[in-house]
Amino acid sequence: MSRLRIDQAVIAQLVDEKSRVLDLGCGDGLLLEYLFQHKQVRGFGVEISHEGVHACIARGLPVYHGDIDQGLSDHQDDSFDYVILSLTLQAVRRPEFVLGEMLRVGKRIIVSFPNFGHWRIRAYLALRGRAPRTRLLPNFWYDTPNAHLCTILDFQDLCNKMKIRILRQIPLAAEGGLPKGLIRGGVSKWLVPLSAANLLAPVAVFLLERGTP
Amino acid sequence: MTHQDDDYTANRVTRTMETTTDTTLQSVGVVQTQFVELFTAEHRLPLDCGATLGPVQVAYETYGTLNPEANNAVLLCHALSGTAHAAGRHDPNDPKTTGWWDLYVGPGKPFDTNRFFVICSNNLGGCDGTTGPSSIDPGTEQPYGLTFPMITIGDMARLQKALVDHLGIRRLLAVAGGSMGGMLALQWALDYPNQLEAAIVTASTPRLSAQNIAFNAVARQAIMADPHFNGGNYYGKESPRKGLALARMMAHITYLSEKGLHDKFGRRLQDRERLSFGFENDFAVESYLHYQGSSFVKKFDANTYLYITKAMDYFDPFPDARTTAERLASVTARILVMSFDTDWRFDTSRSKELVKILNWHAKRVTFEEFPSPHGHDAFLLYQPLYQQSLASFLDRLYRECVHITADAPVEMDEGVDHIV
After folding, report:
1. Which residues of chain A neighbour B365 with C-beta distances below 8 Å?
2. DSSP string spanning B335-359?
């Protein structure tokens, strides 16, 4: 049995049933398969690696082998209900361009990213004096694909600049797998108060649409 | 584009198969081509040009077994110079009689004959047993030659459809092909939307570019300029061998990549130590092309070359936005489009052009580009990533439509399902 990452589980809950979905950087297609199974969505994934594309084909998911930095010119304006970018924003070369393209082809977009303002990352740099490496960002500075790391506040600034309307922002208290102890503590354990999010949330999920914030 | 009659490729394929150590991959064995008359002088095949044709005979081969539900059939479409002989051997002791897609068709291979009933027929206008310009015109009792009507990719698909009906199959699991075979697979998805589950379009294009048409035009001129061409009426006499060989030599260059050709031959000299300072075959690549040309003319009819290249030139299912929307409205097949990075005959941008048209109309399409040193010919040769994706796609079709197997559900942990 396969389980979604926490940010994928949150994203899945934001997607309406029977909607048309584009999942950028869909990896092995697990989130998309969940959405096909449980939300009866249509749509497909975009993935740059052969491993990912192959996994999607084996799951029976439509997938496009390509680079999202090349843009989404294959698609008409507003042709998807949701365009998803999960834990991929930090690895694209042109985040502003990619977000702009997502907003063009999608009525709503959902973005999750690692929060570079998390206290653990700040402490890593302050105490060790070296570029932070975490479970979510495990690479060394010289071999990382993650060229554009931002904090939650940075991301809000970019939304302001691009006149993107923030419909939901969901800072999460965990980054990846789901430690059982925390779940028993109840749902609130998974959420971080917005006021302290930039310090306490290792990951955040944003639901966005075009418009003035 | 297929070279089952070709020593060089036969050697290359044999070598590749030897390095594939998986013993579950087997040949379909010794096979025979079958023949059936699907249209008669009275019941004629209608053609896009307005004419009709009859009688029409089709040469075809099948591998595997049609199940009682008749829902496991896969149609393979050959390219320009291919035949009905896709897999197995006609002579068990002669590797040169191996089918053109044998690497991918057989027990345990992507087109797994333990699961699928695989059909391949010689295209309309061909010269390997299906009615074409070298067939006898019952009106004159002479070969048609250039009186054969002009045919299209749509006409070829219509004849394939008649064969599929004849075999008692209402709906195909997949139609697959490379190069012109990919055009046929696409044509099926457009013309018979309710009669196939999937189309597999490899190393192909939604239309020929000016450069593609130009290459075809020069090939036709080479044939028609041959002194033995005689207006296409050369049957029983000296045939336009030199013109056809020249057409094949030029086309063959476009099937290989520059790097592939250079890696294979470089500037190596042929059977000599130094340059001849004359017009003999100094270089190995010259000798190779001559071999390609001369072996091709033994098996192929010059008039068929003219007709089939013209049919490719005419292929253009999406000439404008309105036509495209109309043609795609009823298309329900899932479509797998694959390309190779060194193919310059129909390069990746041509596949992407097709994918863009399909995506623009929200069709269910998967696209993947593979690395290969082999240029356009790559779709016939062994490439592990290509083989895996093709096998997975077909396996998925089998498990969704033939032997239905439920997927393990993807789940989310308890407690997180009410966060939002």
Report:
1. 44, 62, 64
2. EEEEEETT--SS-HHHHHHHHHHHH
Binary contact (A44, B416; C-beta < 8 A): no
Cα radius of gyration rounded to whole Å, chain B: 22
Fold type of domain A6-115+147-210: Rossmann fold (3.40.50)
Q: What CATH number is attached to the domain comprising B142?
A: 3.40.50.1820
Structure tokens at A142: 């010289």
Residues of B with CB under 8 A from a CB of A: 334, 336, 352, 355-356, 359-360, 362, 364-370, 385, 388-389, 392-393, 395-396, 400, 407-420
**Which candidate, B368, B406, B250, B224, places its Cα nearest to that of B302?**
B224
pLDDT mean across residues, chain A:
90
Rounded CA-CA distance A161/A163 in Å is: 6
Asked whether the beta carbons of residue A178 and residue B413 sit closer than 8 angstroms, the reply is yes
Say whether pLDDT at B182 is over 60.
Answer: yes
Note whether B95 and B14 are within 8 A (CB).
Answer: yes
∠ CA A196-A109-A91, rounded to 5°: 75
Residue-wise pLDDT for A48-75, tens only, equals 999 999 999 999 999 999 999 988 988 9
Q: Where are the domains of chain A?
A: 6-115+147-210
B179 as an active site residue: the answer is yes
Contact (Cβ atoms closer than 8 angstroms) between residue A148 and residue A95:
yes
Residue ranges making up the domain that contains B162:
7-213+318-402
Structural domains counted in chain B: 1
Which of these, A173, A193, A201, A195, lies nearest to A115 by C-alpha position?
A201
Q: Which of B179, B257, B339, B351 is catalytic?
A: B179
Instruction: Tell me the whole-structure pTM to 2 decimals.
Output: 0.93
Residues B416, A190: Cα–Cα separation, whole Å: 8
Could you give the ipTM of this predicted complex?
0.91
Q: Residue B302 falls within a domain, yes or no?
A: no
State CA B187 to chain mean position distance: 13
DSSP letter at A127?
I
| B75 within some domain | yes
| Domain presence at residue B23 | yes
Report the chain B residue with the minimal C-alpha distance to residue A185: B415
Catalytic residue, chosen from B128, B343, B347, B377, is B343
Q: Which residues touch B262 (CB under 8 Å, ≥6 apart)?
A: none
Instruction: Please state, in angstroms and as integers, the Cα–Cα distance from residue B287 to each residue in B268, B271, B283, B323, B374, following that order.
Output: 11, 10, 7, 47, 19
